[in-house]
Every structure is written in structure tokens, then in C-alpha cells.
Amino acid sequence: MLDDRTTAATWPAAYPQGYAVVDVETTGLARDDRIVSAAVYRLDAQGNVEDHWYTLVNPERDPGPVWIHGLTSDVLEGAPLFPEIAAEFAARLDGRVLVAHNAMFDWQMIAREYARAERTAPVRQRLCTIALAKELSLPLPNHKLATLAAHFGVVQQRAHNALDDARVLAEAFRPSLHAAAERNVRLPLLECRPLTEWAGAPAQPRIGHQGSYAAPSSSAYRMNSWRPSRKRPACPYPNPGRYETDRPLKQGMRVAFSGDTSVDRELLEDRTVEAGLHVATSVSRLTSLLVTNDPDAPTSKTLKAKSFGTPVVDEAAYTQLLRDVAPADG
């Protein structure tokens, strides 16, 4: 049933005919991490729920941050492997726009799983609800799923449970979609290119997880990367100064990165920007924090950080800090 504000006659003809709202929980954020659970809510053209589906997935390795997703090795031991649920998953994605909160991450995790299974996910376009919220200029203090849900009065029952997160997102997406239709806003749809060639890339075994998938070399990954580089918008918040140990990051802080990261650098930078932080391309006296996994490397950024006394944290600590960034002063 259509929202009272938007009738079938005024619904934008260019809008997609169906959506698959997706959430996946994973063993981590790196390229060789695996999906441990997945959920899909299928929606019609106007965002009404048609059905939903949920499955656990045996990652064939350590489950990762159990304190986040709650899925232990014992729980996942009897779960199906990804190739065993790939067909059902694909049937629920087929012909629809994939919708997710930070959709690039969910799409990359899904695409890699299909590449490992030597299959291709039937997804041609994705829509990120963070990008849609920005297009609609929703008055949100940050772009966390819980914040978007609260804006639309959606109650979150089990955060980081794939089924509940997908439900929450589906319920928040429908009013967002209707607001966009009412204003005839162009949806921020992006192309999803399959990573089928990635499955055959040279591998570097991951130590310590018997039977785990071996990640391809970073050069092979970059070779198949399709995401265009682009200039980031200026951070809207003033720089509050340097990061202080045992205190949260604050919006407006200038964060620089140096060296290799396990999470794709652009994804890590996207999360930084979405949290209200500024991505600094160099280190200066104004830099709030340097993120590096090799603080002793003789790079220009690490050397400058030492000379300026700039705080330094590794990637794992930084991703934890990103979960709870304090709002800007004012």
C-alpha cells in the first residue's frame, strides 16, 4: 500500500521495481574475512515487505568478534557453508537493487563469498541508506543505523543480529524511499561489478585458521578494483585538537593513515568521513591522530608524527574508536 503522500501516478518511473535489503555479519573487516550470518528482506517497488530470509553460515574459521555478533564456534559448527546457501541467497537478490547501511562493505563481502564459490551474485546495482539519508538531508547527528532507525521511530531489538538489523533497515528505508519519491530525488544507485576473476588470484595463506580461505595478494585485489577515486567533501566540523588516550574520538578531528591496512583503505576512509572526522593526506601539527600498523616504519608520516608528538594508534584500536565518536562541540 502506497504512502498517502505518494500515489502510483506520481511515483517516479525511473525508480527500481524491487529491493533486497541486506545485512551480513562477518568474522571481521578484512579482505579474507568471512560471512557468519546473512539476512534479506525483499521489498516491492514502493518499499513494502514481501518476505524475509535468514541463515547462519559456517565461516570455516574463527568466528571473530563474538562480543559483537554473538555467534560462537559452537553455534556455527553445524551451519551450512556459503556454497550451500549461495543459490537461495542469489534467488532473493535476483533482479533487485541491493540496499544496505554502508552498502559498499556488504556488497564487497557478498561478492567475495560468491567469487570464492566460483559463482556470481545476481546484483547489478546497490543503494546505500547512508548516501540516501545525505541526499534527503535528514537531520541526523551521525549516520549510525540506530540513529537512522530512531529518526523514523523504528525500534532496534538486537543490534548486530543480521535479521533484526535487516528488519530495522527495511522499516527505515520505506519512509526514506517515499520521501525521495515525493521530492523526485534521484536515488544514489551505484553499479555492482562481480569479482569472479578475483577467485583465481594468487593466494597468500592465512596462518592459524585451518581450512580458512587464503586471501589474494593486495596487488591482485587492486588490479580488479573498480571503484573510482574522488575528492572528499570538506569536514563540516572544527578541529577539536589531538586525540587523548582512553577518551573517544570527537567529530572534526584530523586523522591520517600510513602503511598497509587489512581493511580496504577507501572503505576505512569512508567510515572515517561518515563518522564526522577529517581524512588528512599528510601529518602536521594540526593532525589529531595517525593510524598505522607499523609505527616504526621510516615513512614521512610516522617520522613527522614522532617529531610533532602526534598520537599514534593501530588499525584495530582505531576501528574500535570509530564505533563511538563523540559529537562536535557546539
TrEMBL record:
Residues 209-247 are annotated as: Disordered. Residues 18-182 form the Exonuclease domain. It comes from the Bacteria. The keyword Ubl conjugation does not apply. GO terms for cellular component: cytosol. InterPro entries: BRCT_dom, BRCT_dom_sf, DnaQ, Ribonucl_H, RNaseH-like_sf, RNaseH_sf. SMART domains: BRCT (SM00292), EXOIII (SM00479). GO terms for molecular function: 3'-5' exonuclease activity; DNA binding; DNA-directed DNA polymerase activity. Keywords: Exonuclease, Hydrolase, Nuclease. One of its GO terms (biological process) is DNA replication. The keyword tRNA-binding does not apply. Pfam families: BRCT (PF00533), RNase_T (PF00929). Residues 247-325 form the BRCT domain. NCBIfam families: dnaq, PRK06063.1. This is DNA polymerase III subunit epsilon.
